[in-house]
Amino acid sequence: xxxxxxxxxxxxxxxxxxxxxxxxxxxxxxxxxxxxxxxxxxxxxxxxxxxxxxxxxxxxxxxxxxxxxxxxxxxxxxxxxxxxxxxxxxxxxxxxxxxxxxxxxxxxxxxxxxxxxxxxxxxxxxxxxxxxxxxxxxxxxxxxxxxxxxxxxxxxxxxxxxxxxxxxxxxxxxxxxxxxxxxxxxxxxxxxxxxxxxxxxxxxxxxxxxxxxxxxxxxxxxxxxxxxxxxxxxxxxxxxxxxxxxxxxxxxxxxxxxxxxxx
Length: 263
Ligand SMILES: Nc1nc2c(c(=O)[nH]1)N[C@H]1C(S)=C(S)[C@@H](COP(=O)(O)O)O[C@H]1N2
Ligand SMILES: [Mo]
Hints:
Blueprint: H1 2-6, H2 8-15, H3 17-25, H4 39-58, H5 88-95, E1 102-107, E2 113-116, H6 117-121, E3 126-133, E4 139-148, H7 149-156, E5 164-169, E6 174-176, E7 179-181, E8 184-188, H8 189-193, E9 198-203, E10 206-207, E11 217-219, E12 232-238
Parallel strand pairs: 1-12
Antiparallel strand pairs: 1-2, 3-4, 4-9, 5-8, 5-12, 6-7, 9-10, 9-11
Helix pairs in contact: 2-3
This protein binds ligand MTE and molybdenum atom.
């Protein structure tokens, strides 16, 4: 019942049909949405804020997304978005199979820290078989294995002013006048501390392939696929994302998608 009431698409359909189709189409032809004063954008943002508040009110913080069994994994995970980043930093890490990879965690934390991949692999891990829903309309079930983000956050210590976790990625899906547009995403601390939110380094019992975000990608199981940043370079605790890039908190939110993509 609450899933129906909360459906993003329903909220949008009840308002503006043309705009409702937009998050499904999602492409560069919607560049006008990057203008902050655009009325369609303002409408989408208010609908998004409503969904976010309703979902946070009605869903308990730790409510789990459905987990499946191994027999439900029927096809491979579909690679989507960036599948083979070609930025120099990424290429050089890939050459040595990510042996020199270090995750940086900083921002509004008590102790900024750097985590080599081995250190991450030696932390307590969680395994989960979950469904990935892309905004484009497809979904796949896969097994993910990695360290709960909460354990990393507990080590660095979140300062009271922090409200969001920002993921900075190695890949730049597009270029603009200001240079490479690196992928980035952010989630609130409720999702960041959620038991199923993991930094995954394995998928379907193999090391995470490059196409799926090697060496480290996040799983945010109660939201759509684009929230699940692949190729994570750095995690930054922040109080507000309006100062980042176009101000909407994520690569796709800057392009008209909703920042909160709850499902
Ligand atoms: N860094 C980065 N993360 C990303 C993307 C991307 O292009 N770059 N695409 C997103 C989208 S739209 C989806 S559906 C999923 C795809 O993950 P997969 O390739 O493992 O299926 O990654 C998300 N995370
Ligand atoms: Mo997606």
